[in-house]
Amino acid sequence: METLIYLDTARALGLEEGDAHVIRNAGGRASDALRSIVISQQLLGTREIVIVHHTDCGMLTFTDEVIRGKIRSELKQDADHIAFLPFGDLEQSVLDDIRVLKESPLVLDVPITGYIYEVESGKIVKVGSS
Ligand SMILES: [Zn+2]
Questions:
Q1: From residue 119, how far is each of 8, 34, 37, 91, 104 by CA, in Å?
Q2: Is 81 part of any known ligand binding site?
Q3: What are the recorded GO MF terms, alphabetically (predicted)?
Q4: Partners of 54 in the beta sheet?
Q5: Phi, psi values for residue 72, rounded to 5°
Q6: pLDDT confidence of 1, banded at 50, 70, 90?
Q7: 62: number of Cβ within 10 Å
Q8: Which domains does the chain have, with CATH numbers?
Q9: Is the pLDDT of residue 5 over 70?
Q10: 12 C-alpha to center of ligand 1: Å?
Q11: CB of 101 within 8 A of CB of 37?
Q12: Distance from the CA of 61 to the center of ligand 1, in angstroms?
């Protein structure tokens, strides 16, 4: 049985309630959050982006082929068209996501900073910025 770890990234970043629009998804992947980021910037006035991935992430443990195979056998469905966005290198995944947002024509040119939240220590480590 998998345990869902609650990450207190808000506390690690020193955020108070209402300071940030927090968008969560599996792996913290930027392309998956794009719709919400655009809404946040255009309608809520958000002008800075912080990407946080974390150590011991489940996204490091599988590939698209593995999850597609699981869906095929358990659900009898074809999910070959879905990119589940797992990654093999945690730090690189953060840098990739900074680039995805920086290069998106739908995202305003705002500061983007990427961090890794260390679940073992509760510390947050900066790995890059735009
Ligand atoms: Zn994770």
A1: 9, 25, 25, 15, 30
A2: no
A3: carbonate dehydratase activity; zinc ion binding
A4: 117
A5: -65, -45
A6: very low
A7: 14
A8: 3-60+86-129 (3.40.1050.10)
A9: no
A10: 16
A11: yes
A12: 10
